[in-house]
Amino acid sequence: EGRETRLRVVLRVRPLTCTETRRGDQEVVHSLGDGAIHVSAARHDATFGFSAVFDAGASQEAVFEGSGMRQLVELAIDGFSCTVFAFGQTGSGKTYTLMGPLAQSETQPALLGLMQRSFTCLLEQSRSRGTDLALSASYLEIYNEQVRDLLSPGPPCALPLRWSKTRGFYVENQLSVEFESLEAIVSLLLQGSQRRRTSAHALNRHSSRSHALLTIHIRSRAHHPPTRVLQASACPSKQGTLCFVDLAGSERVKETGSSGELSVEANSINRSLLALGHCISLLAKPRGKRTHIPYRDSKLTRLLARSLGSSGITLMVACISPSSRCLSETLSTLHYASQARRVTTKP
């Protein structure tokens, strides 16, 4: 607590798709072991280092155990504000890493993503620690710079984003739903995910067109033996959060083949990712040299302000494709993620 801690950044390289293999795409990304990755293609020869690298053969379980996700769950139970966000080009495996293939997850437990594994870990921890945990979840999307509630009944409507001295930036009137079992939270995740804005474009048939934030609120109160009557102040309660952020794809509009409404979507996605990148590059400077961090530049950076810049603990999962066709987007993700490794917070 209060110690400077670096943003933990791990990298996941997905396998080549059938289309890429048929097309004869070359693999230009190679894991060197020990958190290092090498990119070799015409005029490009670069090595990047991360906390961990998961190559095409890594299972969902290996990513959960090797990324530090289990520790993040434990810290959230201890009262810290914890965030994990997946970043990368459309079709690079962000949603798969976080949630697995949503339709099949009941039948193939091995494919479950970081979210479902974290929920299981959270409920196991709460049972084994003998603490009384009150768990609730809220689920939002940011679509065309509007914040919308994915859990409230009826068509998603825009909610105002407010600022207060005690809470920082918060969303007014968002629905928070209590849950006690794995089935209940997975059902909330599925219900919200089906309401997210998705559409097809040249890079992905089922592309997320919004940034989604699922937040688990954890209030814990230690159990005390019933023999002594304690005053309320003697059994302190802690409040932690565990926030999962599935960012919309980062790529240039021309590559998505988008026009009209889709082009507006792509531009607003890129604007908010640019604002996030700008905040990260300023946060990566040594504390003494930091100038004003422009969190107010987008709704996304406002909602991530606490986890990125001040008192939170953050895990970033950068997702890339190994294909030669995706080289420029892959390099841009790798540079972005390398910069994020220099960000420090004081949880």
Automatic annotation (TrEMBL):
CDD domains for this protein: KISc
Coiled-coil segments on the chain, per record: none
Keyword tRNA-binding in annotation: no
Family matches, as SMART domains: KISc (SM00129)
UniProt-annotated binding residues for ATP: 88-95
Pfam families found in the cross-reference section: Kinesin
Signal peptide: none
One MF annotation (Gene Ontology) recorded for this entry: microtubule binding
Keyword rRNA-binding carried by entry: no
SUPFAM superfamilies: P-loop containing nucleoside triphosphate hydrolases
Family matches, as InterPro entries: Kinesin-like_fam, Kinesin_motor_CS, Kinesin_motor_dom, Kinesin_motor_dom_sf, P-loop_NTPase
Segments forming domain Kinesin motor: 6-343
Cellular location(s): Cytoplasm, Cytoskeleton
Keyword terms, alphabetized: ATP-binding, Cytoplasm, Cytoskeleton, Microtubule, Motor protein, Nucleotide-binding
Main location: cytoplasm
BP GO annotations: microtubule-based movement; mitotic spindle organization; spindle elongation
Gene Ontology CC entries for this record: microtubule; microtubule associated complex
Top-level taxon of the source organism: Eukaryota
Similarity section: Belongs to the TRAFAC class myosin-kinesin ATPase superfamily. Kinesin family.
This protein's name: Kinesin-like protein
Species: Pomatostomus ruficeps (Chestnut-crowned babbler)
Lineage: Eukaryota, Metazoa, Chordata, Craniata, Vertebrata
Gene: Kif12
